[in-house]
Each structure stands twice: as C-alpha cells, then as structure tokens.
Amino acid sequence: MSRSQVIDFSKIKISCGDCNIHELCLPRGLELQDLEQLEKVIKRTHPLQTGDYLFRAGQEFQYIYALRSGSIKLNLMDEQGNDQILGFYFPGEILGLDAIDKKQHLCSAVALETSSYCAFSFSNLSEICQLVPGLQNQMLRLMSRELTHENELLLMIGTKNAEERMATFLITLSSRFHQLGYSAKEIKLSMSRQEIANYLGLTIETVSRIMSRFQREQLISVNRKQVNIKNPDVLKHISSGSNAGSGKVQWYKQ
Amino acid sequence: MSRSQVIDFSKIKISCGDCNIHELCLPRGLELQDLEQLEKVIKRTHPLQTGDYLFRAGQEFQYIYALRSGSIKLNLMDEQGNDQILGFYFPGEILGLDAIDKKQHLCSAVALETSSYCAFSFSNLSEICQLVPGLQNQMLRLMSRELTHENELLLMIGTKNAEERMATFLITLSSRFHQLGYSAKEIKLSMSRQEIANYLGLTIETVSRIMSRFQREQLISVNRKQVNIKNPDVLKHISSGSNAGSGKVQWYKQ
DNA sequence: CGCGTCGTTGAAGCCGCTCAATAGATGTGG
DNA sequence: CCACATCTATTGAGCGGCTTCAACGACGCG
C-alpha cells in the first residue's frame, strides 16, 4: 500500500454497476449476476493521452473497447496513404467491432484528448455471450447500430453539399453531447478542422469558410474549438437541405 | 402430388448442405447436426422478380435474408427523399443485419433481376446462436464484414475521384463474380447506369462518359449492360489512384 | 411505327478545391 | 518577458472536375 503517485490500474476494482455510463455501454440491460460475468473479462488500463493509439491498423484483434471518457477518432487508410476518418467516438460507445471478421484491426483508433476506456477480451466475451443471451443480443445490437451510423454517413456524403454536411455535423454532435448529459448549446470540439473536413469529405478551407459564414449569419459563435449553437432550428433546416431551392443536387429520386 | 404449374415453395425440402452456395452463406463452417438446427428456421419463399422488394424501409424486422441467386440493391432514403444505394448484393451474401438494433428496417432491398433467397427468422436464429457457438461467431463475422465493406466504400467516396471510383467498381465487381464461379472478364451488369452513379456518388452522365473513355482506351468494351474487362491491370492501377500525378487530390496525409 | 425508357455526348456553369498569404495561438529558449 | 519558430485556422483569388442542362441516339414494346 504505497503512496506512489503512479496509480496501479491493475489493482483498481472494476464494476460496471458503478460506472456512470453504465446505461449507454456494453452491459446495458444485463442482470446483476450477468454483469459479474462481464466484469471478469475487463482488462485494466491506463488512460490514453492525446494522439495515443487505442489500436492500430494491422494489429491482431484481441479486445473490444468501451470508451469511458474523452473522445477517439477511427480512421482507415489505403495502400496509397489515403486516409479517411470513419467516425468520432464518445463515452459509452464501443470500438473495434469491425475487426471481428479478419481477426485483425483494419482501422486505427486515436485519442483526440485524454481518454479512458475498458477493454474486453473478445474471445472471453464471445464465450459469455453463449451463456448470457442478453449480452449476445447487445453485441448484435451494437454492431447493427454501427452499421446504421455508417449508412447515414454514406447517405450524407453522397447526397448533401458542404453547407448541409457541416450543419448536420454540428447538430449531430450537439445531440450526442446532450445525450451524454453535456450542454447541447456549448460544444467543445476535440477534433481539429482538418479532422472535421476529412470526416465530411471536404477540405479544411471549406470547413473554415462555412463555419465563418454560419457565424456571420448568427447560427453559431465560434472561438477556436469552442462552438456555441445559437440557432439550432435554422441549422437543422439547413442540415436537412430544405433551404436550397437553387443549387440543390437532385440525386436520383424515384 | 398434382402436376400444377405453380410450385408450392412451402413443400420444398430445404437443405443448406445441398445448396451450391453453402460455403459462402450463413452456414459456413457449421457441423452437420448444427446445420439441421439452422434449416428448421428457414422460411420458404417464392423468388423475387425485377423491382420486387425483399424488404422496405419502415417494415418490422423479422427475418435475415441470404441471397441464393440474382442480385439485390440496398438503399437508404432520408426525409427529403434523397436516396443513396449502400450496396449491391450477390449470391451467398446476407441482407437485413442493420435492422437488428431498431427492430425495424431502415433500408429497402430491391431485386435487380429475378432472385431467390432464404429467409431466417431472426428470433429463432438468435436462439440457435445460444446453442451453436459456430453460428454465433458466423453472425458476428458477417456483421463485421458488412462494416468493413461500408468502411471501404466511405474511404473510396471520400478520397477517390470519379475515374478511380469507376475503375474500383469494375474491378471489385469482377473479383466478386470470379469468386462466385463466373467469368472475371465478361460481366453482365444487373444494375442501371443510374444505380451505379448513385452508388459511387456521381451522376449518370459522368459514369457514362468514363465508361466511354475506358472503352476508347481499350480497358473495357461496353455493350449496354455487358462489360468485358480487357485490361484489368491498368484498371487496377487507375483504381488505386497511382496514375494521377496531376489533379490528384492529396487528402489529409499525415 | 410511335412512344417511352435508358444511355450517350456536347456545352456551359458552379461548387468546392488548390494555391497563397496572413493572422492567431502555442511553445521554446535566451 | 519577449523574440522567434511552428502549427492551426482564416480569408482571398483563381481554377478545374463534376454537375447541370440539353439534344440526340439506341433499344424494347405496345
């Protein structure tokens, strides 16, 4: 029992029941005795610092990760070095599910700020799923939700213009923050303009210009990474594409 | 035992073991006795005709579908009627997995030609997963693969230009056909130009122009929906983006 | 044959990218 | 504490790839 400044994370008692994001996370809906099963396979870890990798593309797949605090970006790179950010992750969300098939991570996950997480051994998890129907269903639901998110991202990038994407991004972020118990109006971005641009399939200049325009039009106020949503209704209107009668792309309506 | 011309599909004995796409499909890797479990929950059906819906957005989620023959497009529509094709599906591939979370289909699946399929009751399937570890793992793998496909699509649309997308589309199609035992060189497209364009985030005119250009450059020969790959190597080269030294977008390389 | 659908091709315009310069923030060392 | 370097973000000017608009051709079907 030393008073060492270094916390020994392997000694910390892990309990999903006490976790404040319990209702958002993997154990959602599990019974108490099932929870204990789950807690047995959690690996203790140090928190990540900004820029640290949760996992890298190419690494062997071993764990599924539940984010407890902070934020993480997931990105995919091809042989030419083209890099695409696939999503930003916040507390309660699960990372690593796409590696199940190839037993190897194809994406990389990088901390955007100091972030803590739980790691679940996948092989153990999949054994427990065999015993706990609720957990199996939760796993399937989580993967299904992941699919839904990507579907919506594809729909956005395929059909919306730059202004609509930017508005959608802000509104979605606001709503996710709200669900986590933070303010829906005052948002602290943990990602850079470059990362926003990449995620939305735009350039950093376009993102910057549109944010400036939104500010001129009193929809938001921006100060570096601090964004205040001043007119969510108009933003939602823009994000839905309803305001464009002119240059709007009329993609393939049947 | 009538000689009725109408086949009664409910009487047909279903056996995954005899199915010719058995090794590509849901039962892949299952033991014989486990297969029997699986076969019990297959719903018998009539084949779909071109334009028929396998399922529609909004419908209650009840079945997971395995395509046996033909091809199907999956698309997602937003409130404004913007429509995005998320993927084209061929024999052995599974549809409907993204509906698990919301217990409701968010996408629609439409037959591009006469297509037959198997329908598995999801609630029964998920019970069997509890008993058959191999099936549970196969389900997870399938969803993971689906995620991987969407990731790659996002990477393509986010980083590649029109020519590269078109080349990637043709090469990918060729490879999938080859895996199914068809010719990798002579491809019969079941989707329209409009559907290709939508899928790739382009317009029909751009798709048409690029296919004409590819034909002029002797990379393919096109006759309506019949496409012959004449120079796969150069196509692969284009699809990887290696040929562009000029106007190539240099997205956010770190 | 007339009609509708689908696909091709041309010309022109626009949205978002590229290039470039500047400002602001952060960090470092003397 | 300030000069300097570095990195991120902003803003402007110009260009280009893809879209838009339009006309035409090819094919299938009644």
Describe the structure.
The structure is a homodimer of 254-residue chains. With 254 residues, the first copy, chain A, is an alpha+beta fold. Chain A folds into 2 domains: 10-144, Jelly Rolls; 160-239, Arc Repressor Mutant, subunit A (Orthogonal Bundle), CATH 1.10.10. In chain A, 37% of the residues lie in helices and 19% in strands. Chain A has 7 helices and 11 strands. In chain A, the strands form 3 sheets. In chain A, strands 1-8-3-6 form a 4-stranded antiparallel beta sheet. The first copy, chain A, has a 4-stranded antiparallel beta sheet with strand order 2-7-4-5. In chain A, a hairpin with a 5-residue loop joins β4 and β5. In chain A, α4 (162-179) packs across α7 (232-239) and α5 crosses α6 (204-216). The model of chain A is unreliable at 245-254 (pLDDT under 50). Chain A binds a DNA duplex (30 and 30 nucleotides) through residues 161-162, 192-194, 202-209, 211-212, 224, 247, 249.
Any descriptors?
homodimer; 7 helices; Jelly Rolls; 4-stranded antiparallel β-sheet; Arc Repressor Mutant, subunit A; 2 domains; DNA-binding; alpha+beta
Outline type of chain A: globular
User: What integer value in Å does the Rg of chain A equal?
Assistant: 20 Å
- Total number of helices of chain A: 7
Q: Tell me the β content of chain A.
A: 15-25%
Query: How would you name the CATH homologous superfamily of the largest domain in chain A?
Result: Jelly Rolls
Query: What is the name of the CATH topology of the largest domain in chain A?
Result: Jelly Rolls
Distance between the termini of chain A: 69 Å
Described by its quaternary structure, the protein is homodimer
Named at the architecture level, the CATH assignment of the largest domain in chain A is Sandwich
Strand order within the widest sheet of chain A?
Answer: 1-8-3-6
Q: pLDDT under 50 segments of chain A (min length 5)? A: 245-254
- Count of β-strands of chain A: 11
Interface with most residues? A-B, 54 and 56 residues
Supply the helix-strand structural class of chain A: alpha+beta
